[in-house]
Automatic annotation (TrEMBL):
Keywords: Cytoplasm, Hydrolase, RNA-binding, tRNA-binding
Catalyzed chemical reaction(s): an N-acyl-L-alpha-aminoacyl-tRNA + H2O = an N-acyl-L-amino acid + a tRNA + H(+)
Site (Discriminates between blocked and unblocked aminoacyl-tRNA): 13
General function of this protein: Hydrolyzes ribosome-free peptidyl-tRNAs (with 1 or more amino acids incorporated), which drop off the ribosome during protein synthesis, or as a result of ribosome stalling.
Name the record gives this protein: Peptidyl-tRNA hydrolase
InterPro entries: Pept_tRNA_hydro (IPR001328), Pept_tRNA_hydro_CS (IPR018171), Pept_tRNA_hydro_sf (IPR036416)
Similarity remark: Belongs to the PTH family.
């Protein structure tokens, strides 16, 4: 798993107005990873994204983990594809080593699912990334935010902040998601699925 860097993209919307929204959980997870690796985000010269470069985790056997490019697009969610594609091209990273962290309403809050490929489930950020990369065959860490209550529109729900009770549990969820990203990069998708899907 040590050959070549990973591009880890955390999805969200830019600016303080959206920072606490469910839709921005991808940004939140990348902040955890940056803190964990002691790296800082900076504006990228060739892409609309804030980027931090680091090594993530430890490989089986004790060697340092792979290089990762942590990226938070500074565009709005539904135009995440351009920055993702530009960064993949800039760093020479294929879709097989692109990992996208995003909110998922079809998964209960406080749960994670991981997969490579498949549909986008109505998620506009993923749809734009698939279009820009020309493939759906990239890895996703899907962070459960639960379904909207009653008849609330899904778009309104994901653009609201986490509830008070959710905020108490959110730090652990973000750590779990960061751990899942690290495990994919160091041990592979199947190992990470085995750990996190068994807990769902």
């Amino acid at each position: 798993m040590a050959d070549g860097p990973w591009l880890v993209v955390g999805l969200g919307n830019p600016g303080p107005r959206y920072a606490g929204n469910r839709h921005n959980v991808g940004h939140m997870v990348l902040d955890v990873l940056a803190e964990r690796t002691g790296s800082r985000f900076a504006k990228h010269p060739r892409a609309q994204a804030a980027v931090a470069e680091a090594r993530l985790g430890v490989l089986p056997g004790g060697a340092p983990g792979p290089r990762v490019v942590l990226a938070k697009p500074t565009t709005y969610m539904n135009t995440s594809g351009g920055p993702t594609s530009a960064l993949a091209s800039y760093y020479g990273i294929g879709a097989d080593r692109v990992l996208v962290v995003h909110d998922e309403v079809d998964i209960p809050f406080d749960s994670l699912k991981l997969k490579t490929g498949g549909g986008e489930g109505g998620h506009n950020g993923l749809r734009d990334i698939s279009k820009a990369l020309g493939t759906r065959d990239y890895t996703r860490v899907r962070v459960g935010v639960g379904r909207p209550p009653g008849r609330m529109d899904t778009a309104d729900y994901v653009l609201k902040d986490f509830s008070g009770s959710e905020r108490k549990e959110l730090p652990m969820l973000l750590v779990d998601a960061a751990d899942a990203v690290e495990m994919v990069a160091t041990e592979g998708l199947l190992a990470a699925q085995g750990r996190y899907h068994a807990r769902a």
